[in-house]
Amino acid sequence: MKRYLRKPLMLGVFLPAAVLTLGAFSYQPLKYSLPLELPQLTVSAEASLQELADISIPDYVYTIQSGDTLSTIFQTLSVSQKEMYQVLESDVSILALDTLKPGDKLGFWLKQGRLQKLELRFSPAHQVVFSKVADEAFEYDEVHVDGEWREQVVAGEINGSFYTSAKAAGLSAAEVQRVSALLQDKINFRRDLRAGDRFQVVRAEQFVDGQPTGNTRLEGLRVLNRARELTAFMFDGNYYDLNGESLARAFMRVPTKRQFRLSSHFNPYRKHPVTGRVRPHNGTDFATPIGTPILATGDGVVTRVTKHPYAGLYIVIEHGEKYKTRFLHLSKALVSKGQTVSRGQKIALSGNSGRSTGAHLHYELHINGRPVNAMKAPIPVADAVGDEDRVAFNALKERLLTQMSTTGNG
Ligand SMILES: [Zn+2]
Predict the structure, then answer these.
(1) Mind listing the pLDDT tens digit for each residue in 349-379?
(2) 32 alpha carbon to ligand 1 midpoint, in Å?
(3) CA-CA 20 to 30 A from 370: which of 139, 280, 355, 405?
């Protein structure tokens, strides 16, 4: 682990593994860990604050390495496990700590050894900040920076499988999976493609302050399969074919076979019953008895199956670039990370895990990285580009097609 030291590390006495009692729940604090593969935490100091030349410089910045756990990081900085759990309690609304991966940075602001602020720096485009707002409580802020998207054409010819050909041309495994998912109703990539068929993809890469963030999106693509031409163009966050027909399959409104009573509504302004502070409820709660089958609401890829001390066992599914769903407090997961799922597929059994006041399902829908009311938000319906958008769509389509054709491969 790299640590940027601004002032000498205070070697306070770490509280032994006392059991914290939080609400109706007891935890062994040391058992909570990040979902990273774990060799032991090693500490080596490295002083460089250039990238943080800013008035609000954290007292410590950690760069996460494989093997780190949240507990060991807090322990190394002599920040109490109790404060770690206070941060985790705020994290239940955003579930950001579980997405930390090697290379991400953690900024700590301390005052007399007590945590004041914790910044999760995932990339120049995405940060989450937990700030102390009361003696026992933290609140979070999420920062998204859109930056600049730079386009690039990736083109190639089928030689072997689509996967190996597209990888050889420069697409990542995740991008190949996205292309396959987009065209899954139009072509069977294994059966229908022939050697010599061609493909072209306009990919955009995100930059913030000149730095790549690691995020990419597919703006347009074309597969030339003998006499057939298969296309996808991203317009207003959704994908359409050459004729402006949607490539998305419709979503289901609720993640269960039958509708259960809504026990708590989506409410970004909900107040904590005890502290009176805003503690957003970013999902919809359904009064599902333990063991109720939970269904994927749209086609997608499972990106997380994780346990959180407050959210319990939960699943995250990404549905293309724009939509994401989350299912909390489960008793059993029936899918695993990386798995492709289709709308209506059974993915889990509901439960009462984590900090939960009773058996229920907490279901979230996110559009472009932000939680929305899943019961009211415009969910994808298999629809065409509207008449009022035709001119804009056609202009976009022509621009992307021209780009693809200038690869010398069109
Ligand atoms: Zn809920």
Answers:
(1) 999 999 888 999 999 999 988 899 999 988 8
(2) 22
(3) 355
Class for the domain spanning 2-144 = alpha beta
Residue 49 Cα to ligand 1 middle (Å)? 40
CATH topology of domain 262-372: Glucose Permease (Domain IIA) (2.70.70)
Report CA(410)–ligand 1 centroid distance (Å). Answer: 50
Q: How far is the CA of 264 from the centre of ligand 1 (A)?
A: 6
Q: Is 323 helix (H, G, I), strand (E, B) or coil?
A: strand
Q: Please give the CATH architecture assigned to the domain spanning 148-248+384-405.
A: Roll (3.10)
Report how far residue 44's alpha carbon sits from residue 63's, in angstroms, rounded to the nearest whole number.
11
Cα–Cα distance, 165 to 154 (Å, whole number): 11
Span from the CA of 405 to the centroid of ligand 1 (angstroms): 49
Q: How far is the CA of 61 from the centre of ligand 1 (A)?
A: 33
Number of helices (H) and strands (E) in the chain: give both, helices first.
Answer: 5, 24
Contact 145, 126 (CB under 8 A): yes
Kindly report, residue by residue over 119-128, the tens digit of the pLDDT: 999 988 999 9
Residue 274 has a pLDDT of: 67
Q: What share of the chain is helix, strand, coil (3-state, %, to 5)?
A: 15, 40, 45
| Residues 132-172 pLDDT 10s | 988 888 999 999 898 999 999 999 999 999 999 999 999 99
Ligand 1 centroid – CA 92 distance (Å): 10
Extents of the domains making up the chain: 2-144, 148-248+384-405, 262-372
Expressed in angstroms and rounded, the spacing between residue 282 Cα and the centre of ligand 1 is: 7
Q: What's the 281 CA to ligand 1 centre distance in angstroms?
A: 6
Q: Give the Å distance between the CA of 118 and the centre of ligand 1.
A: 24
Cα 103 to averaged position of ligand 1 atoms, centre (Å): 31
Residue labelled with tokens 């060799």: 39
Give the β-pairing of 44-45 and 2-5: parallel
Residue 321 — very low, low, confident or very high, per pLDDT cuts 50/70/90?
A: confident
- The CA 90 to ligand 1 mean position distance, Å, reads 13
